[in-house]
């Protein structure tokens, strides 16, 4: 499995939690991609794990991460997928389908620090 982690400034915690002390601590977003190469036309199911001050994000349904896919270069959005809670605190599952093989970009928007952009090669 590939893991990508980001530290999001405490300002985002303001929108995620309503507790004063937790607002000053950083929020972390981790994308856990399944092993192997995504395949065109089939579901690719990465997980997003959200923590606040080192603990799983406590409010199910209060935050739902989105992942958008694009062709290489800065073309229009092809599709956007919204995470669904897995039942574990702070964990969300995405069901992403790339419509065709080749090079793709995917982005997870972050309103505080900007978009996180990644590249992936999708197999047939």
- Low-confidence runs (pLDDT<50, min 5 residues)? 6-24
CATH class reads Mainly Beta
Task: Kindly report the name of the CATH homologous superfamily.
Answer: Macroglobulin (MG2) domain
**What's the multimeric state?**
single chain
Judged by helices, strands and strand pairing, the structural class is mainly beta
Describe it for me?
With 124 residues, the protein is mainly beta. It has a single domain, classed as Immunoglobulin-like. 9% of the residues lie in helices and 45% in strands. The protein has 2 helices and 12 strands. The chain has helices spanning 10-16, 20-23; strands spanning 2-8, 27-33, 43-44, 47-52, 55-56, 66-70, 77-82, 84-85, 91-93, 96-97, 102-108, 116-122. The strands form 3 sheets. Strands 1, 2, 4, 5, 8 and 9 form a 6-stranded antiparallel beta sheet that branches. It has a 4-stranded antiparallel beta sheet with strand order 7-6-11-12, with no helix packed on it. Strands 3-10 form a two-stranded antiparallel sheet. A hairpin with a 5-residue loop joins strand 8 (84-85) and strand 9 (91-93). It is globular and about 40 Å long. The chain starts with a strand and ends with a strand.
Question: What is this entry, summarized?
Answer:
This protein has about 120 residues and is mainly β. Helices cover about 10% and strands about 45% of the residues. The strands form three sheets. Strands 1, 2, 4, 5, 8 and 9 form a six-stranded antiparallel β-sheet that branches.
